[in-house]
């Protein structure tokens, strides 16, 4: 199999693989009767198992397509599979719970008004400050500071439970990825 990258053949192959893999993941969630509100430990554990497996399959398909197209060397396959898998898995385990748990309230004016409080503003501000510390202030001995991110996590967990945690994790993910993009941080070349 050789990809013709001048056409959309490989791109559509990847699109099809992604559709099949993530549709199968959604079907598995239904088959195992996972409550979308993730109210039980069983629901959370099944969700996590699926959220680990589906991105792993997608990472293998994605990197295999590049390898079969002779665009990457054999030695680059394992680290690239790991990189794609971790990226997709983190994205899935952060984004999906936020939308699953809040799916009935996404466009509720009453729910949105509840988000307009000084406490919520302070919690969001603490996330912004934590991300700033992580990227722009380094301890001379230990390097980048990641632990300040736990302060808003604990605060939100104590005040808002799982419903708050999934939103604050989504905010942290968006903030971190946005900062990485703004700063132009890239993965170091492996050569």
Structure, described:
This protein has 191 residues and is an all-alpha fold. It is globular, with a radius of gyration of 20 Å. It contains 6 helices and 2 strands. It has a two-stranded antiparallel ribbon with strand order 1-2. Helix 1 (9-31) packs antiparallel against helix 2 (41-68) and helix 3 (77-101) packs across helix 6. The chain is 71% helix and 2% strand. A hairpin with a 3-residue loop joins strand 1 and strand 2 (143-144).
Could you give a quick summary of the protein structure above?
This protein has about 190 residues and is an all-alpha fold. It contains 6 helices and 2 strands.
User: Approximately how much beta-strand content do the residues carry?
Assistant: under 5%
Rg result:
20 Å
User: Taking strands numbered 1, 2, ... along the chain, how are they ordered across the largest sheet?
Assistant: 1-2
List low-confidence stretches: none
Number of helices: 6
Helix content: over 70%
The average pLDDT score comes to 85
- Through-space gap between termini: 26 Å
- Give the helix/strand class: mainly alpha
Q: Please report the total strand number as a whole number.
A: 2
Shape: globular
Main sheet record: 2 strands, antiparallel
Order of helices and strands: HHHHHEEH
List the helices and strands and how they pair.
Blueprint (H helix, E strand, L loop, with lengths): L8 H23 L9 H28 L8 H25 L7 H6 L3 H19 L1 E2 L3 E2 L5 H34 L8
Antiparallel strand pairs: 1-2
């Amino acid at each position: 199999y050789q990809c013709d990258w001048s056409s959309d053949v490989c791109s559509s192959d990847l699109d099809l693989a992604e559709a099949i893999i993530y549709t199968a993941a959604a079907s598995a969630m239904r088959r195992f009767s996972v409550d979308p509100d993730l109210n039980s430990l069983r629901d959370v554990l099944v969700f996590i198992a699926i959220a680990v497996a589906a991105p792993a399959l997608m990472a293998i398909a994605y990197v295999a397509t590049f390898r079969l197209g002779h665009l990457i060397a054999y030695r680059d396959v394992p680290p690239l599979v790991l990189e794609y898998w971790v990226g997709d898995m983190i994205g899935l385990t952060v984004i999906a719970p936020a939308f699953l748990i809040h799916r009935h309230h996404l466009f509720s004016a009453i729910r949105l008004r509840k988000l307009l409080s000084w406490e919520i503003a302070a919690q969001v501000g603490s996330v912004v400050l934590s991300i700033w510390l992580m990227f722009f202030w380094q301890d001379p001995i230990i390097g980048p500071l990641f632990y300040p991110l736990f302060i808003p996590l604990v605060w939100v967990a104590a005040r808002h439970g799982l419903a708050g945690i999934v939103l604050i994790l989504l905010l942290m993910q968006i903030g971190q990825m946005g900062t990485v993009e703004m700063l132009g941080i890239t993965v170091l070349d492996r050569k």
